[in-house]
Design a protein that fits this description.
The mean pLDDT is 93. It is globular, with a radius of gyration of 11 Å. It is built from four helices and no strands. By secondary structure, the chain is an all-alpha fold.
Length: 62
């Protein structure tokens, strides 16, 4: 599986309601210095739904 496949499936899982998918995609984007803005959007969407790891990571990034 290549990185585009990983991104695709993480995004699909997030769209299906798996908050960990969005969180993991955000981590990937941050670690690879790809798109911090999109990572923040994903984390905020997950945090707004009560995803504690996303909330914690947002606090660390401030």
């Amino acid at each position: 599986m290549n990185k585009n496949d990983c991104i695709y499936w993480l995004m699909r899982s997030f769209q299906a309601g798996d908050l960990d998918g969005g969180y993991n995609l955000a981590i990937y984007l941050i670690e690879n210095d790809t798109d911090w803005g999109w990572a923040e959007v994903l984390l905020n969407l997950a945090a707004d739904q009560g995803h504690e790891p996303s909330e914690s990571l947002l606090e660390e990034l401030k």
